[in-house]
Amino acid sequence: MARLKAALLFLAVAATAHAEWTILSADSEPGRTGVVHRHLVLEDSQTNESATIDLALFSTKSCTLRVIDQPAPQRSDLAQVMRQEGCLAGINGGYFDPNLAPLGLLVADRKMIAPLQKARLLTGVLTASSRGVQIVRVREFPRQQKLDAAIQCGPFLVDLGRPVRGLEETHQARRTFTAVAKPDRAALGFCSEISLADLAKVLATTRLADGFDISRALNLDGGSSSAFWFRQESVAFSIPEQKTVRDFIAIVPRGGGD
Q1: Closest Cα to residue 187, out of 163, 162, 220?
Q2: Position 51 pLDDT exceeds 90
Q3: Separation of alpha carbons 201 and 160, rounded Å
Q4: Would strands 89-92 and 132-137 be described as parallel, antiparallel, or unpaired?
Q5: Cα(18)–Cα(154) distance, integer angstroms
Q6: CB-CB neighbours of 94 under 10 Å
Q7: Which residue stretches of 18-152 are H helix?
Q8: DSSP SS3 for 34
Q9: CB within 8 A of 89, min separation 6: which ones?
Q10: How many CA atoms lie within 13 A of 61 on its CB side?
Q11: Which terminus of the chain has a lower count of CB atoms within 10 Å, N or C?
């Protein structure tokens, strides 16, 4: 009987074992104005599944975020917009309906394009202002603050440095996200096909860069919308989107310099 109980306990523990993501390789490439592209290959020791993450890391003292909206048809892709606007790096932005109307708050170049919404999925807001780059919950949103840029999206992936509970565990898709770390660091990121729950674990429990301990992370529009672009000295590093999207989030120098 004791052996049977021990065997059952072992099976129960094995069935509930959490993914343990480890970094197999990591490469960094410096860009302009202190922005760094970091490419990582990770593996889940429980399943041997792998994932790749691309990060554009920056200091909010020297750089900020800009939301670039595309309200009219004949919309361009991420790479073209980043080049035209002289951006340092960028990813796709928030959700939109079949007519490409934005879902949730959208502030681009200090102009409100769409208002804040209450929806189960739209749990957080990425903001950029004179106070820096922040990720806030909807209930924390500073309604009276003047914002240079803002996108409402979700779900929250990391909060208080811990993975958010209850995220979807089985559906794997390309993901884009944004993250902040104290005291003044932030990142835009792209991840190859992974579940939301696993992405949250990776971001909260794996040190993706020295001195970058993520305090909050927010999921953006993923799947075929996911895209990543980083400005290099010669040819840009680019992961293109698979369909047309409404808006983009770009890293730009503070004060508009290069």
Answers
A1: 220
A2: yes
A3: 13
A4: unpaired
A5: 23
A6: 27
A7: 78-85
A8: helix
A9: 31, 35, 37, 56, 58, 82, 188, 228, 229, 230, 231, 250, 251
A10: 6
A11: N
- Tell me the two tokens of residue 181: 């770390």
Residue whose entry in the numeric block shows the structure tokens 């792209």:
190
Residues in Cβ contact with 185 at an 8 Å cutoff, skipping those fewer than 6 apart: 57, 58, 59, 60, 211, 212
Cα angle 120-65-182, degrees, rounded to a multiple of 5: 80
- 106: tokens are 């959208």
pLDDT bracket for residue 10 (50, 70, 90):
very low
How many CB atoms are located within 10 Å of the residue 112 CB?
12
Closest Cα partner for 68 from 150, 152, 187?
A: 150
- Give the SS3 label for residue 17: coil
Would you state the pLDDT for residue 11?
38
Residue type, 248: F
pTM of the model: 0.91
Q: What is the pLDDT of residues 64-117, one digit of tens each?
A: 999 999 999 889 999 999 999 999 999 999 999 999 999 999 999 999 999 999
CB 221 within 8 A of CB 245: yes
- Beta-bridged to residue 36, according to DSSP, are 30, 57
Record the tokens describing residue 201, joined without a space. Answer: 């674990």
- Nearest Cα residue to 51 out of 25, 73, 33: 25
Q: How far apart are CA 94 and CA 105, in angstroms?
A: 9
Strands 106-108, 228-230: pairing kind: unpaired
Whole-number Å distance between alpha carbons of 252 and 166:
34
Give the pLDDT of residue 233: 78
